[in-house]
Amino acid sequence: MAKFNEEYRGELEVNKNISSSLEDYLEALYLIYIEHKIVKAIDISRALNVSRASTTEALKKLAEKNLINYGRYGVISITDEGAIKAQEVIKKHNSLYNFFKSVLGASHTEAQDNACKIEHIVSKDILERIVAFTDYYSKNFGDDFKKKYFS
Amino acid sequence: MAKFNEEYRGELEVNKNISSSLEDYLEALYLIYIEHKIVKAIDISRALNVSRASTTEALKKLAEKNLINYGRYGVISITDEGAIKAQEVIKKHNSLYNFFKSVLGASHTEAQDNACKIEHIVSKDILERIVAFTDYYSKNFGDDFKKKYFS
DNA sequence: TTATAATGTTAGGCATGTCTAACAGATGTT
DNA sequence: AACATCTGTTAGACATGCCTAACATTATAA
User: Fold this and answer.
1) Distance, CA of A36 to chain centre
2) pLDDT, tens digit, 9 for 90 and up, residues A43-75
3) Nearest 5°: phi and psi at A69?
4) Sign of the torsion formed by the C-alpha atoms of A36, A40, A43 and A49
5) Of A27, A45, A91, B23, which residue has the fewest beta carbons closer than 10 angstroms?
6) Chain B 40-69, CB < 7 Å to strand D
């Protein structure tokens, strides 16, 4: 019953919730699209360090959910809906990254690696609090903490 | 080769890295052990909301890795090594929970749910920073942020 | 334009983690 | 002790996500 509601909410056909894995593919695809205006599957494979075969399968699934436009040997593009979803993930990523870097004083790599994983599971509520906190803290206390503990 | 090194580091036999899922089972088992001094598989099933069958399989895997003592229809206990690992996970959980709750002002449920997921993937470095920051912030600024943004 | 290289697809396999159904063993009640 | 119930195990299934190897298609360079 819960399942019924979820699956048929919104677009009435496809469940738009996607796995962490698919989110990674969509995010990579979006970033490549923004940068090159054209997306080749092999660039996604390279970005994510997976085989070409894995990328093909992921693309099929994203297309099924209408998040990208894609056909056999065809041009790949992102739908409006896909772009929104990708932007959401990227926003989460950047918010987490900023918090780790500017508030906690973590290295680029640490901030990056953790953001990449946590972006898929952090809730909206916590994310919003992190964003507000990062802003608040930066304005009021700058990098007091970084200076005191990590220098 | 990287695999070789990992698998044969330390105890020379078993790879002690465990999945998020197994970490959940170990954590639940540990908490039940602490509370009741005795662990029944069905209590783990109930705690994690999984079938008895899934718990049986998880117990087999934890035993293979020498994190618990366990045999068919036998008494279940945790090894020293398993206890250390469980405590590490629980420490991560509590540190994240405290940060979400006392610094960000999140609700019990939000703090709990997010901690449960993030505990498995956050790095040692970031975790340490979160612990230090929570301490530092609580001492110096109390709940300024909570008051300002979430009341 | 044709051979070669690069990219994309498919088939088949493997690992993890979950489930249900059926069976096995242990426990408790009378 | 015997039956009923609870708990644990196994077998078999399914979903996800990854891989390699072989094949298909497209792109590039001679």
Assistant:
1) 18
2) 999 999 999 999 999 999 999 999 999 999 999
3) -105, 130
4) positive
5) A91
6) 40-42, 45, 52-53, 55-57, 59-60
Q: Which of residues 85-124 of B touch A (CB under 8 A)?
A: 100, 103-107, 110-111, 113-114, 117-118, 121-123
Which segments of A68-107 does DSSP mark as H helices, in order? 80-98
- The yes-or-no verdict on residue B7 having pLDDT over 60 is no
State the architecture of B20-78 in CATH terms: Orthogonal Bundle (1.10)
Length of chain A: 151
Whole-number Cα distances in Å, A35 to A41, A61, A72: 14, 23, 23
pLDDT in tens, B34-90: 999 999 999 999 999 999 999 999 999 999 999 999 999 999 999 999 999 999 999
Torsion-angle region of B105 (φ positive above 0: left; ψ -120 to 50: alpha; else: beta): left
Shortest CA distance from A113: residue in chain B: B123
According to CATH, the topology of domain A87-150 is Diphtheria Toxin Repressor; domain 2 (1.10.60)
Domain positions in chain B are 20-78, 87-150
* Class of residue A37 by CB neighbours under 10 A (exposed 0-12, middle 13-18, buried 19+): exposed
